[in-house]
Automatic annotation (TrEMBL):
Coiled-coil spans in chain: none
InterPro entries: Znf_RING/FYVE/PHD, Znf_UBP
Organism the protein comes from: Streptacidiphilus cavernicola
SUPFAM superfamilies linked to this entry: RING/U-box (SSF57850)
Name of the protein in its database record: UBP-type zinc finger domain-containing protein
Domain UBP-type: residue ranges: 18-105
Superkingdom of the organism of origin: Bacteria
Length: 105
């Protein structure tokens, strides 16, 4: 499994910049079928999908009625990424911080 190292995205103009202790994660494979596990089981709907970078679980975003990705987040499952093509960020639910891939040297 490859490893992605993330860095916290700075917030312009913020007096205190966010921090995060969950910056190194494995890259789980894309799930099949592609959809929120809880919504698929219960007949719900989602707006966007988020994948847990610890276990690969797919849940729906906070704009979705179920907010299953947020509900899945807990210690050890802190960081999720969007599954939309071209999206290259992640969100740490624990530290409430946007993350972006660190530049490779």
């Amino acid at each position: 499994m490859s490893v992605t190292v993330w860095q916290v995205a700075e917030v312009p103009g913020a007096s205190v910049q966010p921090s995060c202790d969950h910056l190194e994660t494995g890259d789980p494979p894309l799930p099949e079928p592609l959809g929120c596990a809880e919504c698929l089981r219960g007949g719900g709907r989602w707006v966007h999908l988020r994948q847990c970078l610890t276990c690969g679980h797919v849940g729906c975003c906070d704009s979705s009625p179920g907010q299953h990705a947020h509900a899945h987040a807990r210690p050890g499952h802190d960081v999720g990424r969007p599954l939309e093509q071209g999206e290259t960020w992640a969100w740490c639910y624990t530290d409430e911080a946007f993350l972006r891939p660190a530049r490779r040297r």
